[in-house]
């Protein structure tokens, strides 16, 4: 067990000085975990998923003395002590959302023994040697030639590549080659795929933080073909009818397209609001409740949802994360008193609105409250013009503008469309 502890301590050392901010944060959590005693009994493997360790004895450069190479040497030394498994539990009903089709891991990966993992920190049920309800840390091994299709999870994820150069990206058409020593961060619900070359396997450390007890799913970009064939998706004639038609399969469709804006925005709101207990939120364009679910899972509970689609808000109401939901035309005056909300969110909706609604948004938010929203690049210019005008008038102040982010990478080429997240504070 000391070899495993030494491995984790070295990960803390390497990650703490990384340029990857999320790795630094994970290292701080891991350091706290190592203040606790290890599990004092052998893993009983209740799901019968244990497998033999991958053979990594002949991969990697043993003469290399970089921090990553030293971790590789320590993994090799402690390999037989780790709880290696075929992670078929990722396909279980406990982790799989209702929209995700039932399948086996071998079907998804195209064969047996393509994927092995070893959890070191996390749940004793999955073989962890150190327990934590805030952090999962372990190793991922993929066989040469494996194509790990687009998948996502509610947890935030950091990877540190130890062995092998593989191609990573949100879709198979947007891959970038990553080498040993690279850190890769996947925000909550961000789809990602990994293509391993035929010449060598991939070995990487993973760390999950945030909603580590959330769901895991594989995306199906083809499931939304019927809803993609509407011409320019930015110019839908009747959004209410379009989303009523999509309501029954909305989450399956947008997750297949790679949509994770609800989680991105909820994380940003949580970052700005350390105390969630008394924050009253209005969620405009709430749809089937994805933003409400993301906010609720992060501690917010006083949430009002409004949307044009009757069928979508019926689904949102059934999720029991909103205090109330209403069918509302968001181009008209909102049925809410002035200065009644601490936070206003509007995610994935501004394409169907126009900038004149910003005054109404400000009306319903309290002084000092936050207005948080997203714009796709197709409509960004006209909205920013009005946003700047309101800031010049002293009505609000921009507190945050994101870098260009992926929006629906499996539907629209990311080179043609991105999305921005904005946070304004009402003055």
Overview of the structural elements:
It is elongated, with a radius of gyration of 23 Å. By secondary structure, the protein is an alpha+beta fold. The termini are far apart. The model has no long low-confidence stretch (mean pLDDT 91). 27% of the residues lie in helices and 25% in strands. The strands form three sheets. Strands 1, 2, 3, 4, 6, 9 and 11 form a seven-stranded mixed β-sheet that branches. Strands 15-14-13-16-17-19-18 form a seven-stranded mixed β-sheet, sandwiched between helices.
What's the topology here?
Elements: H1 2-16, H2 21-33, H3 67-78, E1 84-85, H4 105-109, E2 115-122, E3 130-131, E4 136-142, E5 147-153, E6 156-163, E7 166-169, E8 176-178, E9 183-186, E10 192-195, E11 202-209, E12 216-218, H5 225-228, H6 239-246, H7 250-257, H8 261-272, E13 280-284, H9 290-297, E14 302-307, H10 310-318, E15 324-327, E16 341-346, H11 358-364, E17 365-376, H12 380-392, E18 396-401, E19 419-426
Parallel strand pairs: 2-3, 13-14, 13-16, 14-15, 16-17
Antiparallel strand pairs: 1-2, 2-4, 4-11, 5-10, 5-12, 6-9, 6-11, 7-8, 7-10, 17-19, 18-19
Helix pairs in contact: 1-2, 1-3, 8-9
């Amino acid at each position: 067990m000391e070899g495993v502890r030494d491995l984790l301590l070295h990960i803390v050392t390497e990650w703490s000085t990384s340029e990857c901010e999320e790795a630094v944060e994970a290292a701080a959590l891991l350091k706290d975990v190592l203040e606790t005693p290890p599990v004092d009994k052998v893993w009983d493997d209740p799901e019968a998923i244990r497998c033999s360790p991958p053979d990594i004895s002949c991969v990697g450069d043993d003469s290399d003395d970089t921090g990553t190479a030293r971790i590789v040497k320590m993994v090799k030394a402690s390999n037989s002590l780790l709880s290696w498994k075929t992670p078929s539990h990722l396909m279980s009903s406990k982790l799989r959302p209702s929209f995700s089709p039932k399948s086996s891991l071998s079907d998804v990966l195209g064969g047996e023994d393509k994927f092995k993992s070893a959890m070191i920190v996390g749940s004793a049920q999955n073989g962890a040697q150190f327990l934590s309800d805030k952090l999962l840390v372990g190793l991922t091994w993929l066989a040469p030639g494996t194509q790990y299709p687009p998948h996502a999870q509610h947890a935030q994820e950091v990877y540190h590549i130890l062995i092998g150069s593989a191609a990573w990206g949100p879709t198979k058409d947007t891959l970038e080659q990553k080498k040993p020593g690279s850190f890769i961060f996947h925000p909550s619900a961000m789809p990602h795929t990994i293509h391993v070359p035929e010449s060598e396997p991939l070995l990487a450390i993973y760390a999950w933080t945030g909603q580590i007890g959330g769901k895991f799913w594989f995306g199906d970009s083809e499931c939304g073909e019927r809803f993609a064939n509407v011409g320019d998706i930015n110019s839908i004639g009747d959004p209410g009818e379009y989303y009523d038609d999509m309501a029954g399969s909305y989450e399956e469709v947008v997750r297949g397209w790679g949509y994770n804006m609800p989680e991105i925005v909820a994380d940003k709101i949580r970052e700005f609001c350390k105390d969630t207990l008394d924050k009253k939120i209005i969620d405009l364009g709430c749809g089937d409740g994805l933003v409400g679910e993301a906010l609720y899972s992060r501690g917010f509970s006083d949430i009002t949802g409004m949307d044009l689609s009757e069928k979508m808000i019926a689904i949102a109401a059934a999720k029991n994360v909103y205090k109330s939901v209403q069918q509302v035309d968001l181009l008209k005056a909102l049925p809410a008193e002035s200065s009644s909300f601490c936070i206003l969110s509007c995610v994935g909706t501004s394409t169907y609105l126009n900038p004149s609604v910003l005054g109404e948004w400000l009306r319903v938010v309290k002084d000092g409250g936050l207005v948080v929203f997203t714009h796709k690049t197709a409509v960004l210019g006209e909205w920013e013009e009005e946003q700047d005008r309101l800031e010049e008038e002293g009505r609000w102040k921009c507190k945050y503008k994101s870098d260009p982010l992926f929006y629906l990478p499996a539907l629209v080429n990311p080179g043609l469309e991105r999305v921005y997240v904005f946070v304004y504070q009402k003055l």
